[in-house]
Amino acid sequence: MKKVLCAAVTLVFSGLWAQNTEKELVKKTEEAVKVLQDTVHRGWKSKGQFTFLVNQASFNNWVAGGENNIAGTLGVNYDLNYKRKDLTWDTKIVGAYGLIKTKNADFEKKTDDRLEINSVLGTKAFGEWYYSFFVNFRTQFTKGFIYEKDADGKEIRTENTNIFSPAYLTFGPGLFWKKNDNLKINLAPLTSKMTFVDKKYTEVPGYIDGAYFGVDANKSLRYELGLYASTYYKFDLMKNVAVENILNLYTNYLQEPQNVDMDYSLAVVMKVNKYLSANIAFQAIYDDNAFNGFQTRQIFGLGGTIDF
């Protein structure tokens, strides 16, 4: 009987010890996982915004004239920032696509179409300056057309661009100045710029070298080496009104360095509440390889906004 009682007591204490050991193991495992997660996420910050803008105009017996139309634009603006000790890494992804449909037009037309990824990696140099290396990539999502009228007045279109035609890849070492996530300047004096196009646009009979985004006949690539400078500045104009400015400049050492390419974007977001906002977008581009003059676009709309 004593042996049975001792065995029972031993079994009970063994079970209690096993339970305590298991609890301690689970607790230590959870603590280890938390430490690992904190280590992985330490230094990383991210924020993004998804927007949908809509514009609509309708006319009925309107003496002053007008044409019914509806337009919509989808946009994504995402920032991923890393900073730890002497290392900083900033990445911005911007994408937008918009269409407008006019009652008497034969085709829907794009109001926006772009994808841009900009990433700058820097290591501490002095003060607020970093030795840096940056990569910038730009293209569009869908085909682009030139619209004209035929002899009968019917609207016709000719394909002129497509996804990755053109596409721009720009990269190089330099110096990066960062006051904070809202104010940054990057200077890269030895920057490579590569312009990619579909060869079908440069193989047409009678093609003149450089006529299509600076690319020569029967080629699909144009290479440039030059100076690149970019500035990012974001501020609150007033409560619930944020203004974002992006300016990119580039000059090609190898050909006509006096012609400076410029790409300036302005985005104003006026928040009505957590989900509604009025947005203004303006962009001005000068690139004599694409068009001998300024290209501008402006969009204003009311729509939904989701932060993530």
Could you please describe the fold and organization of this structure?
Strand 3 and strand 4 (109-126) form a beta hairpin. The strands form 2 sheets. The chain has a 12-stranded antiparallel β-barrel with strand order 1-2-3-4-5-8-9-10-11-12-13-14. By secondary structure, it is mostly beta strands. The chain contains 1 helix and 14 strands. The mean pLDDT is 88.
Fraction in helix: 10-25%
Average pLDDT works out at: 88
Distance between the termini: 69 Å
**What's the gyration radius in Å?**
28 Å
Short description:
This protein has 308 residues and is mostly beta strands.
Give structural attributes:
single chain, 308 residues, mainly beta, two-stranded antiparallel sheet, 14 strands, globular
List the helices and strands and how they pair.
Blueprint: H1 2-41, E1 44-57, E2 69-84, E3 87-102, E4 109-126, E5 129-139, E6 144-149, E7 155-161, E8 167-180, E9 183-196, E10 221-238, E11 241-252, E12 260-271, E13 276-287, E14 291-307
Antiparallel strand pairs: 1-2, 1-14, 2-3, 3-4, 4-5, 5-8, 6-7, 8-9, 9-10, 10-11, 11-12, 12-13, 13-14
